[in-house]
Backbone:
């Protein structure tokens, strides 16, 4: 089959997968499927500018429908907006229901050919790589991911290093024991440059009690002269209840035909120290210049963030996930070696102080922050208020 014929084959096949997923929506009550809201998160930021206090709300919502066991189907929709206020009050953005978009569908067979592996056909945006979320989703391990990558920048969430996406097949199974997982996927990846561009992914994660680690690698082809690659490793070690360390190192995008520099590196190291109910968490984070195969400042002036180094010192009392009230103080230093360059801010050294508290109520986790920019870019407000509400199902 030639390339054009293969593309024509993929299109109707993808349509059939989507229609099967929609059919599952209506057949769920009859066959015992499960409809669930997997995430619902609101983040409102307010800054004092020349126009007074201005508010902007980001919303993240995910709806999942899953049914079957031996033969299974998963359908996921998402709503993601950086300015929910515009959806009903302005013609600049569509209505809320127009923002609810298809994200992922997968049809597959568990324990194919009486083996320990599952085989699925998928379309859309799948699992994030390099977050540690796979341990919770696949193995039921308590969440140990870092919160800082999601807070480092008001422009984007840096959680994870890469993502499985496209139209293709996924094979998953144990990686040498019950507390491990191997995943292999190959898909046409429209995010990699258009039709006819494919990406293959290999991912593995292992839970060895005190030690947990995840490794992944991907290759996109035909792209550039020698392909485009990404890879990374997540390492978590908890030698005692009083201390643990999380390290994430990766390359979101590597082109062998181009010289390698720091803007292609993703790096985070986060030791965590505990003394009773008092926690001290220093985080060192190097922001990548390429993230999910795109330049961080693409299409928007003054938003390129590659090679910015963040040092976050967090001291807090209590555990948000288990205690009704926690409070803390964070100091964040940001160093920008390219300050003043086109597409960058104008300050090499930035310092912010953030007192915060978290309140846990029935089914909701409230997060209140007030950030003061003591040393900042001229485009940033001196004070910024952030209120977050996260539903827990």
Residues:
């Amino acid at each position: 089959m030639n390339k054009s014929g293969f593309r024509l084959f993929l299109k109707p096949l993808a349509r059939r997968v989507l229609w099967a997923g929609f059919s599952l929506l209506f057949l769920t009550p009859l066959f015992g499927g499960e409809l669930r809201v997997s995430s619902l998160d609101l983040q409102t930021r307010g800054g004092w500018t020349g126009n007074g206090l201005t508010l902007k709300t980001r919303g993240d919502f995910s709806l999942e429908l899953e049914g079957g066991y031996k033969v299974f189907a998963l359908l996921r929709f998402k709503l993601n907006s950086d300015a929910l206020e515009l959806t009903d009050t302005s013609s600049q953005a569509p209505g809320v229901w127009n923002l609810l978009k298809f994200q992922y569908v997968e049809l597959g067979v568990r324990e194919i050919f009486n083996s320990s592996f599952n085989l699925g056909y998928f379309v859309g945006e799948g699992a994030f790589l390099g977050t540690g979320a796979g341990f919770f989703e696949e193995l039921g391990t308590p969440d140990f991911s870092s919160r800082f990558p999601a807070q480092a920048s008001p422009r984007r969430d840096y959680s994870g290093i890469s993502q499985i996406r496209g139209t293709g097949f996924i094979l998953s199974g144990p990686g040498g024991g019950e507390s491990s997982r191997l995943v292999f996927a190959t898909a046409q990846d429209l995010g990699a440059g258009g039709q006819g561009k494919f990406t293959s992914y290999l991912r593995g994660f292992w839970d060895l009690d005190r030690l947990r680690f995840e490794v992944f690698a991907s290759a996109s082809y035909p792209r550039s002269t020698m392909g485009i690659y990404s890879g990374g490793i997540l390492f978590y070690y908890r030698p005692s209840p009083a201390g643990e360390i999380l390290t994430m190192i990766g390359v979101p995008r590597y082109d062998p035909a181009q010289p390698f520099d720091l803007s292609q590196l993703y790096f985070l190291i986060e030791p965590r120290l505990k003394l009773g109910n008092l926690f001290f968490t220093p985080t060192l984070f190097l922001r990548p210049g390429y993230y999910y195969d795109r330049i961080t400042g693409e299409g928007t002036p003054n938003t390129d963030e590659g090679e910015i180094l963040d040092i976050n010192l967090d001291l807090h009392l209590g555990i948000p996930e288990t205690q009704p009230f926690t409070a803390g103080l964070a100091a964040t230093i940001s160093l920008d070696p390219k300050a003043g360059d086109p597409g960058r801010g104008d300050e090499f050294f930035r310092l912010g102080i953030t007192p915060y508290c978290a309140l846990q109520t029935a089914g909701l986790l409230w997060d209140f922050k007030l950030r003061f920019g003591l040393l900042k870019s001229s485009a940033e407000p001196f004070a910024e208020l952030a209120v977050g509400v996260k539903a827990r199902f």
User: Anything to note?
Assistant: The two ends are 47 Å apart (CA to CA). Confidence is low (pLDDT under 50) at residues 1-14.
